Amino acid sequence: MIAEAGLAALWLAAGLAAFQFFLMILALRSDVEVTRAMRSIAVVQGTLTLVAFGMLLLVFARSDMSVELVFANSNSAKPFIYKVAGTWGNHEGSMLMWVTILAVAGAFVALFSRRTGERTLIAGLGSQALLALGFYAFLLIASNPFARLSPAPPDGQGLNPLLQDPGLAFHPPTLYLGYVGLSVAFSLAVGALLTGEVDARLARAMRPWVLGAWILLTLGITAGSYWAYYELGWGGYWFWDPVENASLMPWLAATALLHSINVLAARGALKAWTMMLAVIAFSMSMVGTFLVRSGILTSVHAFAIDPERGTFLLALLSIYVGAAFILFAVRGATLKEGAPFELVSRESGLVVNNLILSVILGIVFLGTLYPLFVEAVSGEKLSVGAPYFNAVAGPLALVLAVLVGIGPLLSWRRERRPVLKQLRIPALIAATALAITIILAPGIGILPRLGLVVAAFLAAAGILPLVGRNPLRAPLATWGMVVAHFGIAVALAGMAANAAFTSERLAIAKTGETLSVGPWLVQLQDVTPTAGKNWTAIEAQLRASRGSGAVTLKPQTRYFSDPPTETNEAAIRTFWNGQLYTVVGKSDSSGGWQLRLWWKPFVTLIWLGGALIALGGALAMLGRLLRMRRRQGASVDWRRKSYA
Amino acid sequence: MKPKNQRLVLVSAALVAVLAAVLLAMWGLRDRAAYFYTPADIAAGKAAQGQAIRLGGMVEKGSIHREPDGVTIRFLVTDGKAATPVVYRGIVPDLFREGSGAVVEGRLQNGIFVAETILAKHDERYMPPELGNLAAEHKAGKTLEK
Q1: Which candidate from A269, A300, A359 shows the least CB-CB separation from B20?
Q2: What is the band of A500 on the pLDDT scale with cuts at 50, 70, 90?
Q3: Hey, are the CB atoms on B4 and A592 less than 8 Å from each other?
């Protein structure tokens, strides 16, 4: 009954979404008063999707094998947390989660949005309903998560062991919240283009959504990167895998949008530009979903290879993106450009930021889709990987990182202050960093060296907006910007240090034998069998020492039975100046074991930087929310006074 | 700047960005995309020496041979028509076995494929599409032979 209830809730939600869209058309063609009706419908629709998702959670938690999806992706021997997380560790469940977030986001807009004009709100809610409707159709027609199996099999087939990891429980929901949070920016932009009300009010209504989505995307990407780093056992943090790119592209677009939206909110300028970015940002989310969910890619993320679903998703994507771009082409030109600004100004700086981010986005987009394109045209198969992305996007990212240090020093409209003078100290620090790397590490590559230098420059220049004023008095939004920009410097330093200074050792070792990697001596002490709830493993005991003090690491190779799979569980030990990363492989006939050891100086800075970037976003968000609240409080006071 | 000029500048800037992205991507893709080849393609001399490519097929039964250093292996990748010798230094991935499918990334050097990465299929559900087609062809070929 539970599955049927979920399915019924989904059908009802789809019906309501259709009605909601119909009301929008009605309202825009005549002056019927529908705002309250639309608000309630959106809330009910969101609640119904929550019910449907809750039902799916329940059948997974109870291991109800009569539901086909549970049978195919779960197993009663799995730990409970992975049974629950298994709900979204598969195609149908993750699409249900996607549409649930979409509808709930719509409900939140309906409940809390008081800032946009009424007609724009109606048009935005209608657009959100239309978006949801397509994904309801996709679920109900091509990917029903509640389909039953008769007779019910005794036990399920299990979940890919790579996905049985605490990271799995949080990584996809975080990214999905980010992806789908951008849908609100998309819908509000579509709404504003329909009504022509593109102004600072709209920007302020969009901003919390974009900021929130961007924070979650940042966290999701950072966590995903760390997950790949420790779970895959390859010692890398970013592989330029199409699925990683699928999450990077919306992030790049959202980063650009986040900056241009500030221009629109503060100065009323960059109207068409910001609307365009809002459309692109969510389009990239949909492209990402299409890439990951259509099964045209090879990856742990690609759950099912089913051409029908891929075609369905592609059709949805083309309709939505196409319609939004046509709308933009028709209405974008009619928008009046806002307040003018000089060539050297904060606005121009943000335009340059947007341009570089857009070029990087284009490069990632083209590189990711090129193999699909070539195969469709000529049937030739190829892959595009790190050599392309690093060589083409890397230098641009460095240029951008330099400008990140300069842009925030410019003032709105027209620059009058001597900015270059302020940059003397950061420039000096960068020069010192260059000299130090040349003396201490003459042999490192040009990109890593520049990365270290730029990171030093940005770390110093990034905090300048707080210098010369009382830092405690500075607005939280400014603090947020400074922390986020500093985070970029930290992450960049981590990437450059990892590229420049990593030592690697791959060898076979017998028990008692010692290998050296970087400053470390690593002794293989023993290899023993061990077991967990649904796996068995061999575990190596490694004793690592440098100078005084020693630590023990225990990497494993795990064997899962349902489905039969092996995984390498790396053992990683973090120190203040880097990580020791160890993997155990196979044994050879003479009783030796393959060991792969890495010493990665300062590699943790990469994820620390990511976390700082997200923290900066959170500070800015908090600042905006507090300010909003204060303003609302003030207006209430004012109203009270006027009544009295 | 006047608003009208401002819009003109912004539109041209956007166009320049799009153009720059396309040009940079084309330049980068020209020699950095790794093409996928089968052993038969390599036997026919289709793949250039020294260029990053991908090779896909089945690991031939009885062909895995381990070097004395314990971490270098040699094996043959076959598609039923031809076989390419591969050398790889590293820990082979989960489920890399004789008789099962694998895609290797690397370069051809003097007729030997020097692999940098081995992508073996994790299980039936995560088979690379290239291999999926190959396996299908393989089966089709066998049925024809019968």
Answers
A1: A359
A2: very high
A3: no
